[in-house]
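Handoff note, outgoing to incoming analyst
You'll be picking up this chain. Sequence as last confirmed:
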Amino acid sequence: MSAEPDTLSISLIIPAYNEEVYLGACLDAIAKHARGMVCEVIVVDNHSTDGTREVARRYPDVVYVFEPRKGITKARQCGYQHSRGDILAFVDADTIMPAGWIEQVEKQFQKDARLVCLSGPYRFYDLPWLQRLIASGWFIAARPLSLAFGYLVVGGNFAIRRATLDAMGGFDLSIEFYGEDADIARRARKFGRVRFMSGLVMPTSGRRLKREGYIKMASIYLVNFLSIAFAGKPVTRGYKDIR
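Most recent structure output, in case you need it:
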């Protein structure tokens, strides 16, 4: 295993659409646990119609950018184009970064030059304990997929090398929502190691699971993962904003 020769700079990028309720807690956690360890924090406002902009601008160290084209891949692309770090870390606006997350990202990329993309599971902080337990089963069940295909990425909890994203040509803007994380993982795998690290846990809201249901969501994600893996494109085109 080869190591990186130099210190790696990290840009933290947060896509946000109508996230005034959650964004403040997300940025507070980042200020507490990542201050001084990232070169920038970028909030990409994906054409919000609520107070997302005002919340972001309460934080003087946060870079606010506006992306008028709606869609998660377009927001990620905008953040990538406005960033300057060697490593681009992406979290969702309803996540609450725990202590040690940034340190672990830096450590894993620093010690392994072959690592091009790193991800980990969610922990749903606002679900009842039984639903949290059931939901965590998806990440246990997904582990064999990671081993079988050599990749697995969770969209609100991953980091990727800028050089890899450059080589990939950025994000696939034709993908609306479902399958975008599988597409990132599949294409990044061509340039090096994609690692799903069980210990790199990101607390997040379970709002989509609450609205859509666990079985439905697990089925949609599995079908689109397999579609990306075998056909290179997702089967699910539309999606609902859960706000």
